[in-house]
């Protein structure tokens, strides 16, 4: 990653910020910008997100399976509530998990996340009724991802400052690589050994991987009492409000391709055994999208890339997905959308840290993720409702996804211009 160690200082360094929560660093060193523990933490984060967020990125595989098997009597909008609740629980849990991380560090939270993860998968394998899938695969699995995601991402930021976006991008890339592997693995196991044993095998293998990741991740923060959930000064900061508004619009359409691209592939007569590879290609594009723009943003500015990433994600839906009728064209859309959406996911966290005072970062990120949790919850079911209203036509749903993301990018651009009106400035 081109990381280097900075010179150590004799005075107490400024608190480190993660974009998730805030820290006081141990007073014996500045940010190391690398080293054994730092790089091991990045590797552990990559592994943690591969098994947790990577599977959440592959929910479209379960969506298509349920529509053809256990929940075939239900409309697509109803089934998508399972995946939407995963996202809502993941985002909404950011604030309380961040506060606990402030007080206790990453290990116990990630261990709890691993236990919840295994329990969720095992219980899902025995589910029969719709409400059981909602509770086990929706709520419990979403919580487990939050318990594994936030502490590992937060720990990276205690080791890096200059190369923070790059290090976060490498760690978060695990979620996209997991999104490549899981659709193929899930579909293969479900067809080979059946739903029950297939899900149990996935859960046990993933659980072992999460245990290894937990042992690898460490933090340099000094434990202290958690900060408040809400800072009243935040509501007077137009930059944060515009960024949050943009994040809400983007989140409303952002996950629709992840949920519905497999079913869309079947809709245009792509064979079932090939349709799941489209989701894998989408996530493969996200691997590069999470690393390359993050590395570039450390040089040219995070906001300078965040707004274009959101705009191009929406444009890809309107320019590519809306007119796609062949497997090759759909694969091209998946790769382009994966790259652009991956950049957005990686860059939004450092952007919030950039416009926040040290004492407000933890509260602001918790607020942002809680706010975004609502449109993330509603986006999938809204898309399913549009699909049902149009009697199986995907056109309105795709337009909805693209327009909301492009609209959100305008709010983000407005926040960037409030920081510096010069378009060529590093922001």
UniProtKB/TrEMBL annotation:
Keywords: Membrane, Transmembrane, Transmembrane helix. The chain crosses the membrane at residues 46-66, 78-101, 108-126, 132-153, 165-185, 197-219, 240-262, 274-296, 303-322, 328-353, 365-386, 398-419. PROSITE patterns: MFS. The keyword Nucleotidyltransferase does not apply. It is found in: Membrane. This is MFS general substrate transporter. It holds the Pfam family MFS_1. Residues 239-427 form the Major facilitator superfamily (MFS) profile domain. One of its GO terms (molecular function) is transmembrane transporter activity. Its main location: membrane.
């Amino acid at each position: 990653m081109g990381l280097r160690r900075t010179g150590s200082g004799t005075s107490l360094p400024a608190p480190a910020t993660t974009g998730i929560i805030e820290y006081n660093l141990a007073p014996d060193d500045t940010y190391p910008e690398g080293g054994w523990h730092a790089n091991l933490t990045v590797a552990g984060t990559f592994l943690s997100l591969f098994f947790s967020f990577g599977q959440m990125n592959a929910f479209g595989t379960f969506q298509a399976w349920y529509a053809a098997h256990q929940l075939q009597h239900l409309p697509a909008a109803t089934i998508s509530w399972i995946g939407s609740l995963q996202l809502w629980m993941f985002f909404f849990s950011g604030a309380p998990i961040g506060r606990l991380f402030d007080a206790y560090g990453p290990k116990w939270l990630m261990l709890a996340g691993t236990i919840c993860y295994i329990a969720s998968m095992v219980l899902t394998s025995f589910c029969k009724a719709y409400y059981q899938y909602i509770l086990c695969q929706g709520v419990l699995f979403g919580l487990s991802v939050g318990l594994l995601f936030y502490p590992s991402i937060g720990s990276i930021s205690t080791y890096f400052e200059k190369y923070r976006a790059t290090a976060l991008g490498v760690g978060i890339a695990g979620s996209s690589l997991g999104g490549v592997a899981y659709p193929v693995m899930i579909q293969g196991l479900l067809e080979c050994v059946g739903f029950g044993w297939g899900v149990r095998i996935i859960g046990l293998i993933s659980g072992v991987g999460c245990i290894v990741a937990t042992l690898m991740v460490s933090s340099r923060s000094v434990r202290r009492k958690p900060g408040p959930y809400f800072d009243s000064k935040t509501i007077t900061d137009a930059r944060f409000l515009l960024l949050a508004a943009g994040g809400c619009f983007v989140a409303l359409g952002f996950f629709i391709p992840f949920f519905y691209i497999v079913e869309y592939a079947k809709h245009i007569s792509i064979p079932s055994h090939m349709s799941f590879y489209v989701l894998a290609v989408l996530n493969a594009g996200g691997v590069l999208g999470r690393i390359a723009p993050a590395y570039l943003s450390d040089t040219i500015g995070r906001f300078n890339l965040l707004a274009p990433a959101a705009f191009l994600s929406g444009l890809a839906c309107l320019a590519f997905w809306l007119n796609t009728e062949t497997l090759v064209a759909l694969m091209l859309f998946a790769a382009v959308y994966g790259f652009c959406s991956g950049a957005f996911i990686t860059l939004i966290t450092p952007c919030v840290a950039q416009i926040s005072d040290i004492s407000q970062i933890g509260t602001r990120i918790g607020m942002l993720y809680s706010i975004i949790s609502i449109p993330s919850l509603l986006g999938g079911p809204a898309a399913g409702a549009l699909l049902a209203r149009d009697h199986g036509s995907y056109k309105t749903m795709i337009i909805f996804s693209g327009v909301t993301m492009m609209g959100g990018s305008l709010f983000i651009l407005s926040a960037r211009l409030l920081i510096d009106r010069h378009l060529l400035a590093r922001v």
